[in-house]
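Side project, low priority. Logging it here so it doesn't get lost.
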Amino acid sequence: MTTPEQFEQKLQQQYQHDKACHVLPQRVSREIVRRASPVKRRSGMVLWRNTQLAMSCALLLLMGYLLQPADKTTPLYYQIVVTQHEHYKEVQQHRLSPQTEHTALSQQADPSAVYQQYTAAQQRSTAFHYHTGLLRQQAEQWQITVCDDLLLTIDRQLLSQINLQQHKLSDFGKQQWVEFVSNSAGQLVAIKPVSSGLYCSDS
């Protein structure tokens, strides 16, 4: 009885003997090699084409990801809320808000406040208005007072978008006189420091 190793050895010897007896002619051998070469070349081209296709798809996915906005931010609208105060004739709060002024007005409970805002908006002319007032900086906002007539509050987010006439926020003192410009809608357009202030009567 033969072991598996002996059987393997006999099989290998028989293969070598048959290979030696039946030698492949040189012409047939060259023909086989010639026909095998284009197959290798074609498979390499297919591999290259598939690699290019995969890389293109990956690049398109990456570009799609990068071109998407990072977060869908809500647009901010300039909003002016006009109220009354015992020490001032008019108080205006200027801020940026994710809701329009119309939406904010419709949500107020007091109809007289809505009417006061409407009449204040109607009284503004189409020209730019230049006012001088005293600026006071606070942590969350700036306040500008024009004697006892007007108190203007401006939130920090809006300040970053107002034209400061080649000045930076840090150039303004904690308390100083400024000239501010508003357009026909009452929106602040620019603020700049001035050297002289207003004389306010005590009446």
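Brief comment: Helices lie at 4-21, 26-67, 101-107, 111-123, 156-159.
Revisit when time allows.
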